[in-house]
């Protein structure tokens, strides 16, 4: 959903990174300063780039080439996110938002340390290009935690955690494209990752190319993801554990590749068709089904065009449970 969008036109109030003790941008990549209690620690360069669909269409660099600012309250954050031009936004502490808040093109939003938290509201990537959201904890949101919609492209959502919200945690819809969702930890939540707006929104055909890899779907109910229309959707190396309704659902002629995942205590690992939606296509390969039901599969899906290396499925529980979520970049 997309309600209560906030915009801000007041002069910039947020602090530059230099004022907050952070390093400047080096070769277009933000450097995060040592946190309180870690004095003398060397800053960590975020030199990595997304694997999967966000690496295509020119790649995803977020706020590279812009300045770096640090924010610690809602007004600073919403103003920075909705500003023009490239910007790296460091989020410090807990910020309480309300409703959905705009994120414009060429932004990196990244938590400082392992405890940066956004609560109450969510981030709306709407008609935007080239956005990175990393290393944040989202909780108790009143709509969606992160909503990607209206033709947004090249979005990377990485190493975040999500719990206890109202609607979707990471929803992608309405002709959005070239998205990677990686290394996130979802827990104590129901509607996790919707891909595709509705059965009647046929404008999504030819879009919704999304990669989901190394995510930890930890006791969540459904939508890991639930796909409509998206073709060459790639779901690999995720850890599905105790998902009460289902793992992955392919509907409305979507094409989904489910590869080298680990399903533990999941009665319905994959669905072909779901509820009132027509069936999609789903290819499953090299997955492990530990105390889980049999997967549903149907049809064929073209190979993805990008390079990647899938970890062996048997390694996924340890690898993903230890590496997903904030603090693990």
UniProtKB/TrEMBL annotation:
Subcellular localization, as worded in the UniProt entry: Secreted
Spans traversing the lipid bilayer: none
Biological processes annotated in GO: polysaccharide catabolic process
InterPro entries the record matches: PbH1 (IPR006626), Pec_lyase (IPR002022), Pectin_lyas_fold (IPR012334), Pectin_lyase_fold/virulence (IPR011050), PEL (IPR045032)
Species the sequence originates in: Marinactinospora thermotolerans DSM 45154
Primary localization class, coarse: secreted
Residue stretches making up the Pectate lyase domain: 64-269
Protein name: Pectate lyase
Alphabetic keyword roster: Carbohydrate metabolism, Lyase, Polysaccharide degradation, Secreted, Signal
First and last residue of the signal peptide: 1-41
Entry coiled-coil feature ranges: none
Pfam families, per database record: Pectate_lyase_4 (PF00544)
Lineage, highest ranks first: Bacteria, Bacillati, Actinomycetota, Actinomycetes, Streptosporangiales
Annotated Gene Ontology cellular component terms: extracellular region
Family indicated by similarity: Belongs to the polysaccharide lyase 1 family.
UniProt GO MF annotations: pectate lyase activity
Keyword presence, tRNA-binding: no
């Amino acid at each position: 959903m997309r309600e209560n969008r906030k915009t801000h036109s007041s002069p910039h109030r947020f602090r530059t990174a230099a004022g907050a003790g952070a390093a400047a941008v080096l070769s277009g990549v933000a450097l995060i300063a040592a946190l309180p209690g870690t004095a003398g620690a060397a800053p960590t360069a975020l030199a990595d780039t997304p694997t999967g669909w966000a690496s295509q269409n020119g790649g995803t660099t977020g706020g590279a080439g812009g300045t770096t600012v640090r924010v610690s309250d809602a007004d600073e954050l919403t103003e920075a996110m909705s500003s023009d031009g490239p910007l790296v936004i460091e989020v410090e502490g807990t910020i309480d938002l309300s409703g959905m808040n705009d994120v414009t093109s060429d932004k990196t939003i990244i938590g400082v340390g392992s405890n940066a938290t956004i609560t109450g509201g969510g981030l709306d990537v709407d008609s935007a290009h080239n956005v990175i959201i990393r290393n944040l904890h989202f909780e108790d949101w009143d709509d969606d935690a992160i909503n990607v919609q209206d033709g947004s492209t090249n979005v990377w959502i990485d190493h975040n955690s999500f719990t206890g919200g109202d609607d979707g945690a990471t929803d992608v819809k309405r002709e959005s494209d070239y998205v990677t969702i990686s290394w996130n930890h979802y827990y104590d939540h129901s509607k996790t990752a919707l891909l595709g707006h509705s059965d009647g929104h046929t404008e999504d055909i030819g879009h919704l190319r999304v990669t989901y890899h190394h995510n930890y779907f930890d006791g969540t109910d459904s939508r890991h993801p639930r796909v409509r229309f998206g073709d060459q959707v790639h779901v690999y190396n995720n850890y599905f554990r105790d998902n009460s309704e289902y793992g992955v659902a392919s509907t409305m002629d979507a094409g989904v590749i489910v590869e080298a995942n680990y399903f533990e205590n999941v009665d319905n690992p994959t669905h072909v068709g779901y509820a009132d939606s027509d069936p999609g296509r789903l290819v499953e390969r090299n997955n492990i089904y530990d105390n889980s039901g049999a997967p549903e599969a149907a049809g064929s899906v073209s190979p993805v065009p990008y390079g990647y290396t899938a970890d062996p499925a048997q390694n996924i529980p340890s690898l993903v449970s230890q590496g997903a979520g904030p603090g693990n970049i």
